[in-house]
């Protein structure tokens, strides 16, 4: 099985080597030209030992990378984990590969700064730059720049209100912001298209996924359970059927931030680990209840209390973790699988030469 990244053989390789040299990781990168005129990029055998069985969660600790405080350390983790992909990832150019890395950095940083109020039905955004209708969703008020308006909605300053989002919609805003930031540097026409789109009609849910995202891995061929690259969008499934009926608690969408941590939009200073995410989702089953109208709801206060109690009890913690730390079952199947997903979601291509996202936007006009 070939691991790592593949790009066409071209004169752009020095662009990559310059960045790896700047980060001090060039000696850990192996490149081989294949018979089909592709360049296969991976890690040296020694560097691969830093991620046994493709487990990337401890890489930052192993190499003493301070990914929360240093953009270069975050980039080092992105490059090293990406070049050790258990499935060969195809990029049409070195420039596109660099843009993908930049967007991953942007996602990790923006997800860390995102702080919101969880709500599955409330509709609210800053009313000086956003307006809403059922036909369009939230769109920009003319003259409101996309990047600044997304930040205002997701990254409140001290004493600013927290706006209500579902976790999936929150991930869309973080992704859109991160792509727009890279487009501003690499592909201004794409940024203009995004601006025009969100002045007219928001793209959300399945359409958002189709236009902006790729999915890596399948349930039949899952990625290793602990293989994460900073910037991955990740789903943790709720494997409990009754509590899954509570709207918004079918699972939890987060981003991998690097350093073994996952985003927490509701308490942005308390990022999740795999352990704490497993424990939280387990206790949803004990905290769901039916309201007066017969609808399933979630007692978040009870969830917090149960999580705190479990984390203080090593025996109970280990028992629940063993139950939840398993690959999830297929949708609508509840056969003892856990909350761990088989796939990761990454952004499509953004450069002017290979812009998949522009093609997706064009398809919406047909």
Question: Could you describe the 3D structure shown?
Answer:
The protein is α+β, with helices and mostly antiparallel strands. The protein has 3 domains: 5-84, no CATH class; 111-203 and 353-365, no CATH class; 233-324, no CATH class. Helices cover 40% and strands 16% of the residues. Strands 2-3-1-4 form a 4-stranded mixed sheet. It has a 3-stranded antiparallel sheet with strand order 10-11-12. A two-stranded parallel ribbon has the order 5-8. Helix 4 (71-82) packs across helix 5, helix 5 crosses helix 7 and helix 7 packs antiparallel against helix 8 (188-200). The longest helix has 20 residues, at 94-113. The chain is globular. The protein starts with a strand and ends with a helix. The model has no long low-confidence stretch (mean pLDDT 95).
Main attributes of the structure:
366 residues; alpha+beta; 3 domains; four-stranded mixed beta sheet; three-stranded antiparallel beta sheet; 14 helices; 15 strands; 40% helix; globular
Helix content: 40-55%
Largest sheet: 4 strands, mixed
Order of helices and strands: EHEEHHHEHEEEHEHHHEEHEEHEEHHEH
Put simply, the count of helices is 14
Q: Which word captures the global form?
A: globular
- Domain count, please report it: 3
Beta-strand content bin:
15-25%
Summarize the structure.
The protein is an alpha+beta fold and 366 residues long. The chain has helices at 13-23, 45-48, 59-63, 71-82, 94-113, 146-154, 167-186, 188-200, 205-212, 241-244, 274-282, 300-311, 314-324, 356-365; strands at 5-8, 29-33, 38-43, 89-90, 117-118, 130-133, 137-140, 164-165, 213-216, 233-237, 251-258, 261-262, 288-290, 296-298, 344-347.
């Amino acid at each position: 099985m070939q691991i790592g990244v593949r790009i066409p053989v071209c004169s752009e390789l020095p662009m990559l080597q310059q960045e790896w040299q700047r980060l001090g990781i060039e000696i850990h990168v192996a490149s081989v030209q294949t018979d089909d005129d592709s360049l296969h990029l991976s890690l040296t055998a020694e560097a691969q030992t830093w991620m046994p069985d493709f487990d990337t969660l401890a890489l930052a600790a192993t190499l003493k990378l301070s990914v929360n405080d240093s953009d270069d350390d975050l980039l080092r983790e992105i490059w090293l984990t990406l070049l050790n992909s258990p499935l060969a990832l195809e990029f049409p150019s070195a420039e596109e590969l660099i843009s993908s890395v930049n967007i991953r950095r942007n996602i990790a940083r923006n997800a860390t700064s995102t702080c919101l109020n969880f709500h599955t039905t409330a509709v609210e955004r800053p009313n000086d730059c956003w307006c809403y209708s059922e036909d369009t969703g939230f769109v920009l008020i003319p003259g409101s720049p996309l990047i600044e308006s997304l930040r205002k909605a997701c990254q409140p300053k001290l004493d600013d209100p927290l706006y209500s989002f579902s976790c999936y919609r929150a991930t869309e805003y973080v992704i859109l912001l991160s792509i727009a930031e890279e487009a501003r540097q690499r592909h201004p026409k794409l940024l203009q298209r995004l601006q025009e789109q969100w002045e007219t009609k928001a793209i959300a849910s399945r359409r958002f996924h189709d236009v902006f995202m790729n999915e890596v891995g399948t349930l039949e061929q899952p990625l290793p359970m602990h293989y994460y690259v900073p910037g991955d969008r990740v789903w943790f499934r709720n494997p409990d059927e009754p509590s899954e009926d509570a709207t918004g608690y079918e699972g939890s969408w987060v981003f991998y931030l690097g350093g073994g941590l996952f985003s927490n939009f509701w308490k942005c200073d308390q990022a999740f680990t795999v352990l704490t995410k497993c424990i939280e989702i387990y206790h949803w089953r004990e905290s769901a209840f039916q309201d007066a109208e017969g609808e399933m709801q979630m007692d978040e206060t009870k969830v917090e209390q149960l999580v705190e109690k479990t984390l203080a009890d090593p025996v109970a913690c280990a028992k629940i973790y063993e139950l939840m730390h398993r690959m999830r079952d297929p949708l609508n199947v509840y056969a003892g699988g856990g909350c761990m997903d088989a796939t990761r979601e990454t952004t499509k291509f953004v450069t002017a030469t290979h812009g998949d996202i522009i093609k997706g936007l064009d398809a919406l006009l047909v």
